[in-house]
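User: Here's a chain of 255 residues. Predict its fold as C-alpha cells.
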Amino acid sequence: MLIATDIGNSFITIGYFTAKGLLVQRLPTHPLKHFEEYQLLLHAFIKENNIEKSDGASIISSVVSSHTGTLVAAIEGLPGGKAGSAVVVDHRIAGIKFRIAHPEELGADRIANAVAAHALTGKPAAVIDFGTATTTTVIDENGDYLGGSIMPGIGLMNEALGMRTSKLSTVELAQPYTALGRDTAGCILSGLLIGTAGAVERIVAEIEIETKTSHEVILTGGNCWLVEALMRRPHMVRPELTLEGLKILYGKTRP
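Assistant: Prediction complete.
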C-alpha cells in the first residue's frame, strides 16, 4: 500500500493505493489538529476499509507548510509502521526540467500534476486544477514544466462576493442552467462558473499562441465537476490527478 497525501489550502486529500485500487479520504485543512488526532482519523479509515494489515509507504505534497511536519508525524507513526518513512515532494525529486526562474517556489501539487500529465498523455499538456485557486500547469512533449497561471478559485470568489459586497451573499454551487441569470443567485453562478470556464479556455488559447503548440487539456481538483460540462474544447477529467502524480513520483524516488 502507498499512502499519498496532498495537503491543500482547503482540504487534505489522502489516497490509499492498494492492490484493489485507490481509496480516498478527505479532511478539512483548517484548523490544524494534533498529529495524534490525524493518526486516529487515518487509522479508523484504514480499519473501516479493511486495509489495516497492508504494509506500505508514503509520499506527501503540501502547499501549507505549517501542516507538513504534523502530517508526516501522523502518517509515519501509524500503528504497525503502515506507511514507513514519508517522501516530501519538492522540485528536486521530480525528475523533470523546470523552464521557470524559481522552481523552488512552485507548489508541490503542481509538480505532481505535471508528472501525471506527462505519464497520461506523452504530449504537450495543460492541467487545469480547480481548487482553492484555479491553476494552469503547462508541460511540453518531454514533460518539462513551462509555467502556467493562477487565478482565484470558484469557492474563493463565491466567498469574496459574500464578504465584500453589501447586497450579495454566497450561493450554493451548482451548474448554472443558463448564462443569462434571472435572479441574483443565477447571475452569480453564471459569473463564477461560465466565467471561470471561459477564463481558463482563453488562458490556454493564449498559451498555445505563445508556444505555437496545441495542448491536451486535463481537468482536476475538487471543483472540476462544476466546470467540465461548460468547457467547449476537448478535455479529459481526472479528479485525482495529483494523487496519481504522487504515486509516480514515489516510484521515481523509491523504485
